[in-house]
Sequence to fold (360 residues):
Amino acid sequence: MPNFELMPIGIFAQRTGLTSSALRFYADSGLLPPAEVDPVTGYRYYGTDQVEPATVLRRLREIAMPLAGVEAVPGSTPREALRLLDEHVSDVVADAAAAQRKAAVIRSTLSNEPGLPIVALRGPVLADAVEQTLTASAYDTATPVLGGLRVETSHEAVALTATDRYRLSTRTLMPAEPPEQSWAGTVAGDELRIAVAEIRRSALVRLEAVPHGIWLRVEDGEDRYCRLLPDAYPDHRLVLASLGAVSTRATVSKESLLRALQDHPGRRTALHIADRTVGVAGADGDQLSTPLPATVTGPALRIWFELTTLYPAVSTAIGPDVMLDLRGHDQPVTIRSADRGDLTTLAMPIKPPAKPDGSA
Fold:
């Protein structure tokens, strides 16, 4: 290699962000050997074509990828390299989440404060309710509380609520035993999801509050600890209380409505409520699916949604038929079972997309 293409280890270190000692280590391990070594002085020289792979190596090590993974990346196809990267990140995230859960348990133990009994619930029922309501939660680094499940107990019932500001799901559960007392807190949703399998296998689950979390005490299994999220939860009670009067109501087959939504690709979709039918509009808003038989009261209405808002709201409804309570094209729609009211979801509509002529 011509000398003008080579650079000493110090210059190469500056170009790549790697220290000279790290470069010597990677050279000795065979991961990044120098382009040339002076046989007399032992000085190491690197080529300009080694800058990019050395920079990639540094970035991989910055995210704590082990040497075995780093060694595999250069000889891989782009698809395989991306797979290796994604697998490593998934492992890091899982390890961090596990450490966070274990630290929370240790913290609870170190506090040496007795737990406060809250309520006892049927395990399978609680597991289903957690999964149903958490579909309306969201991972948001700016507002972590949106990833939580709001738990509120009274002497009569237990209410579970989740919202991502576009959907709001709430389910009411009847306790297996009279609640010990009223209590409210926002539980980390990701930790509840992990606990669901254990909860489902227990006939009875007792909730017990400690300063920074709750214990889920199960029968013949491993108790689970979930953190409480400290930030204030959105005022969902105000949202529910401020809903306007229902103007149009439609009851339609849940399976048929989901199938119609699946058949219309695109980010946005519209529901067209008419006399005895519910139709689903495609991306242009003009082509309707085959009208679905429905029981409809009130005036006809077309209302637009993001598919990612509407579909989960319908899919989590309980029972074969869903009831849609509509208040106008720009107001939240209430989606619930046609014969059970213990799970209710609000879905926020969007503005109708503009047509080519500029009209809505």
Observations:
- The mean pLDDT is 88.
